[in-house]
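Q: Two folds, back to back.
A: First:
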Amino acid sequence: MKSTLVLLLISSMFVCALAQTAPRRSSGANMPAGYWPLEKSQPLVDKTQTVSLAPDLSHLTAGERAAIEKLLEVGKIFQS
């Protein structure tokens, strides 16, 4: 159960990171009414873009820690 939760948290981090790397649209380009222009929304995105997780992993088995290391390696690949 604990390892499932850790894997879910890490997967969520990757999904969030990938969602934030989509191509940016130019300001006001075919935006529906009510959407903020890039000049207004970008400062908010810049403040909230980084996600840091620091769970206590001391209770995990050696195999679970190895799986976490592999997931972190994959995360670095996605981030680059």
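A: Second:
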Amino acid sequence: MTPDQFFAHRRTITLDRGDVAFVDLGSPSDGSAGEAPPAALFVHGVFLNSWFWHGVAERVADLRRCIVVDLPGHGATPVADHELTLPGLAHLLAELCGKLGLTAVDVVGNDSGGAISQVFAVNHTSLVRSLALTNCDVHSDLPPDAFAAVVEAAHAGALAEAVPPLFATPRSVRLPSVLGMGYQDPAAMSDEDLLPYVEAVGRRAGAAEDIQRFLVGLRADDLVAIEPGLKGLDAPTLLAWGTGDEFFDLKWARWLRDTIPGATEVVEIPDAKLFWPQERPGELADLLRTFWADEAQTAA
């Protein structure tokens, strides 16, 4: 699926604090007219947008209505008056679900989107049918050491000026100092794979300032505060973790496994790095299909 084909499914809806854009993919697996399929909610991380999930979403859209959100300041969602904290962003997702008439969703998160997904699962438990987390911020590991300098620059107000040249072209985005560190083989990522990030961050006026504000709002205290809630989270939970990630160590996946009652194991993805769901989408799609099938059998 090309970016044009993917974003042809993009919609915008107005919430209390501003508009939110999302890509809406999927149809009932049996093709029956009028039957609403279960919904999955995909949440990306900082500097990215809904395009990050395109390879996974298109592979599971026969099983789920895939709601692939652009977080505020990313993709086509403006910052507007949205609250840029983990609880605020989790509330945005809950409000989006309400506007779409979704009473239960399978949540899938990566990077800072995984942190938001955890807060969403704790603060809006009734909306969560299941939770799938890939490499992401966990507990006190926000920001991770490898990303701390970027967050410090955001707090100092120096990040906004530095960002646009880094996202000027797909070639610059591949650099280890930009997104390249998150891919196992950045050279294999085509220009088309990375161009949506160039267009959303490097070429959109005000994008760098928006992302700087977004980063300032993400605080470890908000993740630490949900530990008691995670300990009571019975929703089936898939933990799929790239073992080559330089940002989020495997120990945090094991912490989640030992903390969330609905999690039973950690699926290790050999040598995969932070952005493996975009780089190796077939692997995550296969895991989700099995996970959701097992979840359905358990519920029955």
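Q: And?
A: The first helix runs from residue 3 to 7.
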